[in-house]
Request: fold
Amino acid sequence: MEDFIEKGTNVLKAFLGEGNIIKQNALVKNTTTCPSMAVIFARGTAEPGNVGILTGPPFFAAMAAYMNGTNQLAVQGVDYPADVVGFLAGGSQKGADKMASLINSTMTKCPGTPILLSGYSQGAQVVHLATASLPSNTTSKIASVVLFGDPKNGTALTGVDAAKVMTICHSGDDICKGGNQLSLSHLNYSSDANAAAMFALGSAAPMLGITSQKLRADNSLG
Reply:
């Protein structure tokens, strides 16, 4: 087990390199106004910052583009260890607790703000754990969920309407099949950023002034 953990961590670090440490804390820092839409995102294992670099930032950029760059989007990363041990355990409980806390605080402070939950790889596990820990009168208010490279692919989110959930899993991604083998198929979800953004914005499009959107006709890719 220790050899696998060390190998997995080294592979990810080699692929990511030093990377840019990106942190998004719009919900934590903003204590005075409510955004038009809030995104709470959990990064993948071994990614830097609190939103990573492989999937989160391209996804946020695509969403901002569809929102015509009006700065109505508040992105909040989930601060959690994101280590291989957490992935092997089925997701970090610390990450799930943090995400649940962010959901509760945002709904309390800004009840009219649509909330999007998203996670990549272990971050998707965190979303599963967080929603399972919340009451149905909370999860039913979540506007949309997008999961990238979900190790629990095929498992429904507790308390969230399946029509609000998009799970993006590439056909060659072993992680999405419950495995632990890393491949390029698990590392290139940035290519799905535009489709994910259109789905995520969904029914909030008219309120946000979005000029194009994708109807939620299909809640799964790959």
